[in-house]
Every structure is written in C-alpha cells, then in structure tokens.
Design brief:
0% of the residues lie in helices and 41% in strands. It has 108 residues and is an all-beta fold. It binds FE2/S2 (inorganic) cluster. This is Nitrite reductase small subunit NirD.
Length: 108
C-alpha cells in the first residue's frame, strides 16, 4: 500500500474530522474517542451531505443533513438506511496520520 502522511493525530479534533483533497474529491479523515482514524469520501451516500461535519460516536458518524448513520469502518449506512460511502484506509503511526487512497470502487 502507498501510505501518505497527512498530518499529526493532534491536528484532528477528537470526535472530529479533517478534510484532505483527494483525486476524486474531498476525503474526510475522522478521529474516534479512542484515537483510531478512519477515512471516507466527504459525501454522504444519501444526498451528498458533508460527513466531515457530522458527529462521531463509537465507530459511526451521523450525517449533519438528515442524520443517517454511517459506519466509519465500512462506509455502509446503518439500517434501515441503505447506501455506502467510499472508504479509504487510514492508520496512526508514531503520532502521524497515514492515508492510503482506495481508488477502486469499494462496493461494486
Ligand atoms: S445527505 Fe446525509 S443523511 Fe441525507
């Protein structure tokens, strides 16, 4: 995998997100309460709401527009809603946040 160093973990607020410009649009990189990081395209699978402005809790983010809940791990919307946000790989190493772009369609 090709990992990109995007920022320090402290640059992302706990339960917040940072936006990174990707080749296919903005990517939201989220930080959970236990300092894990997850990356999804900053586009809700419902109507394109900015997931980076949503509220993170557990391994989910709630879209700020209509409150769909999206899994940070898979990008899937929690039932009864149905859809998937494109995800990328992200991890923390030595206090740095690393991102690996997933340029394939995650869910064909
Ligand atoms: S755009 Fe995200 S829930 Fe509607």
């Amino acid at each position: 995998m090709n990992w990109l160093d995007i920022c320090a973990l402290e640059d992302i607020n706990p339960l917040g997100a940072r936006i990174v410009a990707g080749p296919a649009g903005a990517i939201a990189v989220f930080r959970t309460s236990d300092d894990q990081v997850f990356a999804l395209d900053d586009r809700c699978p419902h109507k394109g709401g900015p997931l980076s402005q949503g509220i993170v809790y557990g391994r989910l983010v709630a879209c700020p527009l209509h409150n769909w809940q999206i899994s940070l791990e898979s990008g899937d919307a929690v039932a009864p809603d149905n859809g998937c946000a494109h995800r990328h790989d992200a991890k923390v190493e030595n206090g740095r946040v690393l991102l690996s772009l997933n340029l394939q369609t995650a869910h064909p």
